[in-house]
Structure formats: structure tokens, C-alpha cells
Amino acid sequence: MTLNPQVRSVRIRIGSYRVETWLILAGVFVLLCFAIVQHSLMAGNESSDLHFLGVPLDDVYIHAQFAKNLLQGSSYSFQAGQTLTADTSPLWVALIAFGGLFTVRLELVAIALSMLAYLAIGPGMYRVARDVFGMSENHARLAGFVTVLSSRLIWGGMSGMETALAALLMLLVIEEHIRSRKRNCIRVREAIWLGMALLVRPEFMFVALILSLDWIAAAFRNRSDSSEAPLAILAVIGIASPAFLLPLLTRNSLISHSSVVQGAGISFIPNIAYLLYALKILASNNVIIFVFLLAAVWLLRRKSEYYTLYIIAVGLPILQSFIAPQFRHSGRYFFPVFPLIILLGIGAWKEIEQKIHTLNSIKKSIVILILLAGFIQIVRWSFIAAESVRNINDQHLAVVGWLRQNMRPNDTLAVDDVGMIGFFLNKPVIDLTGLMTPSLWLLQHDQDSVWRSARKSGANLFLIYRRLNPPFYEQHKDSLILQHEFPVRLPLASAADTIMSIYRVKEQ
């Protein structure tokens, strides 16, 4: 029987994407497993606000609140009308706002976006490994499945944060850079991806610096074609301009308010504890891939296409140890380097296979161990993510429910963690940490001044972590009446303290 040419064409197209389809299905299965673990730990305690899925970080609701204000015609803001660079991911906010055209459940939009970004990384890795780095079909497939089984990328895919998108953009930027370097000419496509990446995470400024230096070196060594360089530069600046113009217009600086609050600054001595922390996370994601990463220093020394990957993958955590090292959020600030680490690790394994003639059974055993190492970490991180969601719900979501029932019309609320509370209550709040209330950031060295400024602004209801800024509570506890406390169930995964407390100011 002769097949209709159109049917045959469809079959050929489906067959040509068979590996990518399996990678996507594997990713969907892993995400489903994460969701099942989350629901089992929640034990049916979800509220009407979070009936489907929860999030592990309160920051998801900061993104959602900024997106909500954009949808309502306000400026880039948390408090409607007060333009503020307390969110360093304008593109992520814009994507959530676009999803808000179809649903008011912006937290679900954020989760769906992070899921889609994660699902795209695996097939992308397979294609890049095969088509850009010239790996065999088997090695390219292995790279794809190791990516799908990367626990930190899965965490990003379930988080509702921009982490998975940043990892995907890292892969796309590197892909276009290596393609262009092989052609020995600068192309605008690389600039487009890089500009978008800069709108997602400020860490991509380091990536932009490394890629620029690589092109400058290429121009001197090989006299590469730089005819498109002016257009590429304009594309990067044009696309990424909101990330720099917003802080410039709001605070006369190229550094966002969020970066300042999180401790952006240069130290001449690296934070050794942070380097050890980063090393632990990089190694534990897949210990065998990490061993191959170390071996890649020697094995890939003659393959120049891997140099940029190594500099970025190793250089970013090192740079962060000098500039605002962040131990919170499970280390997500350097998660985008994991696609590069996987490419380096699989590239080293490919070289080992070519140099050492071992039995096929041994080679297969190593591949199984690589996948098993990833699977073990997936199990571990599914519980870490679920515990984080549970902690957020135990405190932030429970507080929202309490405030809806007990907050008086004339109350003014001052809080230590504003995301979910500001999003669901849809009322102005005073941020005691200074992130959403910049005037209080300047007073953080003197908690008595923070108290007096908040009271002057009318705050009479305080939602605080007593251990976050101990002087704040200790100096003013005699003026406060405890209303309710919200503890979390251990282990403590993401909250600033084990107890979030609501206090009302004593009436004079």
C-alpha cells in the first residue's frame, strides 16, 4: 500500500523530532512527580487561593504583583503608581502580565512559564550537543536526558521563578555564540538572545562581558567579520535597555534597588563560605558529571569551543563570591550555568570513551550511573521544593487568610515579607526591610528609626519575624500586643524564621 505523500511527510517530520518528544515527555513526568510529592506533604491543606500548585518562594508574588500593576495600567511597580526597580526581571514580569490577559491566577501563569522553559531546555541541549558541538547521537541524547534529570533545573521549572528561563537563555546565547565563532562572524541573533537574557537576570552582564572579550580576541587573532557588530551592539542595548533605564530614571544609578537591598557591592576578598556552598551545589547536582567537568580541564584543552563555557560556568560563582554572595533561595542565582556544566561533562565523557577502549558493558554502566546520580538528586529535591512550598503556605498564605478576617478598614500594615501579602490583599503595605519602601532601606542600620518612620506613616499592625531584625522587636515589644503566630513545620527550607508574628500597636 502506497502512503499519501502528505501523510508520509507528516510521519517523517514526527520521526525527526522523536528524541525531542521523548525528552519533553520525560520532563512532564518528572514535573508530575514533583507535584505529587508537593501535594502529599501539603496533606490537603491547600486553600482556595492555591488549589492546584504552590510556590517555594514568596518572590513569585513580587513578580505577580508587578505584572498585575502593569495589567492595570500602572507603572513598573509593587505599590500601584510607585515606579520601583525592586524586581530585576522585567521580561519575566512582562511574560506573566501577558498571561494575565487570559487568567487572573498570575501565580499559575508564572509556574506554567517556568515549566515550559524547563521542558525546552532538554531538547535544546540535545540539539546543541549534536549540531553545535558535534557530539554523536548517543552522547547528544545523554546530554538531553541528563538535563531533564537535573534536579536544580527541575526546581526552577516548578518554582514560578525566572530561573529556568535564565538557564534556557544561557543555552541559546552560548549556542549562537559558538555558531557565530565557527563562522568567524558576529551575528545579530546572538545579540537578541543576550539582550533578552539581560532582561531576565543581571548575572548575564558577566556573560556579556566574557562574550565581548572573546569577540575582541577573535578580531585580533583571526580578523573575524565584524560588519554586523554595530547592529549587534545596538540590538543588545535596545532590548536590554529597560534593565538599565529603570534604575537610572528612578534612582540615578545603573544598579537596581533590589540589587542594592540584596547587598550588591564589591569585596576584594572572596567569600570562602559561599565558594564552598556553590561547590557543594554544583557537585551534588550530578556528582559524576561534576567529576567529568574537572577532567574536562585537561581532556578538552584543545577544543576552543568549550573555553567560553568553562569560563562562564566556573567564573560566575567565583564572581558572585566577590559581589553580593547569596546563600538563600537554594542557590538559584547560579543555576543557569548547569546546561554549560552538562555540556562540558558530556564532552569530557566523549573524550574518555574515545581514548580508553573499554567493554561496552562498562560504558553502559557509567551511563546508567550518570542517570542514576541525577535521579537520586531529583528525589531529594522534590522534597526540598515541597517543604519550601509548605513553609510558604504555613506562614504567608495563612497570614493572608487571617488578615482578611481580622484587618480593620483603618489599619495600616507593615511587614517583613511583602510578596504574597501584597498580591492577595491588594492593599498598600509598608515594607520594613526597605525593598518595596526605599525610604526605610536607608534606615536599616537603626531599627528604632525604622519603627518611628513606619509609625509616622500610620503603621499600627506589624507582621514580623522576631529573629530577622532582633533590635526592632526588642526595643518596641512593650508597645505591641501579640495577635497571632504562624509557625512552619520543620525542616526550615525557605522562611526567614520559624515563626511569623502579627502584632497590633497598643492604643494610647
What is the fold's blueprint, element by element?
Layout: H1 5-16, H2 18-42, H3 59-71, H4 90-99, H5 106-132, H6 137-148, H7 151-159, H8 163-183, H9 188-198, H10 204-222, H11 229-251, H12 257-261, H13 272-285, H14 287-299, H15 307-322, H16 338-355, H17 360-406, E1 413-415, H18 419-425, E2 429-431, H19 438-441, H20 447-456, E3 461-464, H21 470-476, E4 480-487, E5 499-505
Parallel strand pairs: 1-2, 1-3
Antiparallel strand pairs: 3-5, 4-5
What does this structure look like?
By secondary structure, the chain is mainly α. The chain has two domains: 19-31 and 52-356, no CATH class; 392-505. It has 21 helices and five strands. Strands 2-1-3-5-4 form a five-stranded mixed beta sheet. Helix 18 links the parallel strand 1 (413-415) and strand 2. The radius of gyration is 24 Å and the shape is globular. Mean pLDDT is 90; it is low at 7-12.
Task: Give me some keywords for this one.
508 residues, globular, mainly alpha, single chain, 64% helix
